[in-house]
Specification:
This protein has 449 residues and is of the alpha/beta class. The protein has helices spanning 2-24, 28-51, 68-81, 95-103, 167-178, 194-203, 218-225, 238-244, 286-300, 324-332, 336-340, 343-397, 404-419, 428-447; strands at 57-61, 86-90, 111-115, 127-135, 139-143, 158-160, 188-190, 208-211, 230-232, 249-253, 269-273, 275-281, 321-322. Helix 5 (167-178) links the parallel strand 6 and strand 7 (188-190).
């Protein structure tokens, strides 16, 4: 059975070699080279066709249950499922853990949400941004009979600053430090998750809690906004903070936005916060980048409590390199095929265009070049024989005392070298004409005295 298969392959290869040799007038060796070249190009194109196919699964690192990161990732999953792509969601503690996963080449993940400001000393060379998708406001809930106007007034109190490895923890420490409040001082800084912080704040065992929606559930934040005796800190110095800390933005919750009937809040509340970036590894397939951007546009472009309609996604305020695919998408949308065809069909046709058209552009000139080089080599060999023959004839006519024997020996050498030449049938005419000319010179030489 194995021998039969080998015989079939051998016969097929031989036929291809003979067909090329007869078509282009090549020698067996040159035809063999042409066959090998064609086979390598075709095999390479077929391999790249399958290798370049976009994966059907995206691994996404989001956030904890109930957080905005987790909820938005679930919305992405439903949108991508419409195109036959599965979004596998990995829970996390928030932005810092997401960033660590994306940076670690051993961790299998493709994309995730990361808030700006946490990637200061990180290795970002292999990461790209698909744009900002939302604001990430910092909520500071506190117990006090009177409103607190400055963050420095929290000195000496018991503060929950979020769990370690969260964006809340990073931003809280920076803001407090800029107000002279540092770890180890008179202020008690506690690393607590959002549920524990909510319970402690309601029980009065802490004085304030810092929360952000990457790690705090939206139900927790909304519950605290309506609790009697719990106030939401108003960043009266918001304009100053966003000028001093470049990645922060001023975010305003308008009066009555939470409850028009109860007029909650009673006045505009100023918050500060970074933006959230949709970060991917630079190995992510361009077609999948488009799908993620399409999902981001559908999820984040509507109006919300902290954003205007159409404000997100955008390319403003990125901490990572902008993906070229994102730049193209924001400028002109999805590519032509993906815009009008189903994802699977657009992917197939796109790969045909990207792989097989260049293959043809390489293969056709390559096949034409090999015979041209071969014919040039054969022509050059024939011309060399003519050059030697003409030199002999010149020596024969340029001297009165011609050494006929020496010239005949030289002519014999030329004739022997010509007879040993392996010439394809396409050069038969030139070959026989050369032999006629050799015989002509011999007759001329023998006719001399």
């Amino acid at each position: 059975m194995i021998k039969t298969a080998k015989n079939i392959h051998g016969k097929f290869f031989t036929r291809c070699q003979q067909a090329i040799a007869e078509t282009f007038g090549l020698s067996p060796l040159t035809a063999f080279i042409a066959v090998i070249f064609s086979a390598l190009v075709i095999v390479g194109a077929v391999f790249w066709f399958f290798h370049s196919a976009p994966p059907t699964t995206i691994i996404f690192t989001s956030g904890d249950d109930g957080t905005s990161f987790s909820k938005n990732a679930e919305k992405y999953a439903k949108i991508l499922a419409r195109n036959g792509v599965k979004l596998k969601i990995l829970k996390s503690e928030g932005s810092l853990e997401n960033l660590e996963r994306l940076e670690d080449p051993k961790f299998k993940v493709d994309a995730g949400f990361v808030q700006t400001g946490v990637a200061r000393d990180s290795n970002k060379e292999k990461l790209l941004s698909l744009g900002s998708v939302a604001y990430e406001p910092l909520y500071i809930f506190y117990r006090s009979e009177k409103p607190i106007d400055l963050l420095s007034q929290f000195a000496g109190k018991r503060l929950s600053i979020g769990e370690d490895e969260t964006g809340t923890h990073v931003l809280a420490l920076e803001l407090l430090e800029r107000n002279g409040i540092k770890s180890g001082g008179s202020t008690t800084l506690l690393e607590m998750d959002d549920e524990a912080a909510e319970a402690a704040l309601l029980a009065g065992t802490i004085d304030a809690a810092f929360m952000m929606s990457d790690s705090a559930a939206s139900t927790t934040i909304r519950a605290l906004l309506g609790k009697p005796g719990i106030r939401l800190y108003d960043f009266t110095q918001a304009d100053g903070y966003i000028r001093r800390i470049g990645y922060l933005h001023k975010i305003v919750i308008p009066r009555g936005a939470l409850d028009f009937g109860q007029n909650v809040p009673e006045h505009d509340v100023n918050l500060v916060g970074p933006t959230v970036e949709l970060v991917v590894r630079d190995s992510l397939h361009p077609a999948l980048s488009d799908l993620l951007l399409e999902a981001a546009e559908e999820v984040h472009s509507s109006a919300g409590l902290t954003r205007s309609r159409g404000e997100f996604p955008n390319l403003n305020g990125q901490e990572f390199r902008i993906s070229p695919d994102a730049t193209r998408y924001y400028k002109s949308g999805k590519s032509f095929l993906y815009r009008y065809l189903p994802f699977w069909l657009a992917s197939l046709l796109n790969r045909v265009i990207v792989v097989f058209v260049p293959m043809i552009l390489v293969l056709v000139p390559g096949i034409r070049t090999i015979p041209a080089i071969f014919r040039w080599q054969i022509s050059l060999r024939i011309l060399r024989c003519y050059r030697t023959l003409m030199a002999l004839e010149k020596d024969m006519a340029g001297s009165e005392s011609v050494d006929k024997k020496e010239l005949l020996q030289r002519l014999e050498i030329i004739e022997n070298s010509v007879n040993k030449m392996k010439i394809p049938t396409s050069f038969a005419e030139q070959f026989y004409v050369l032999r006629v000319h050799i015989e002509f010179v011999r007759n001329k030489l023998e006719a001399t005295g």
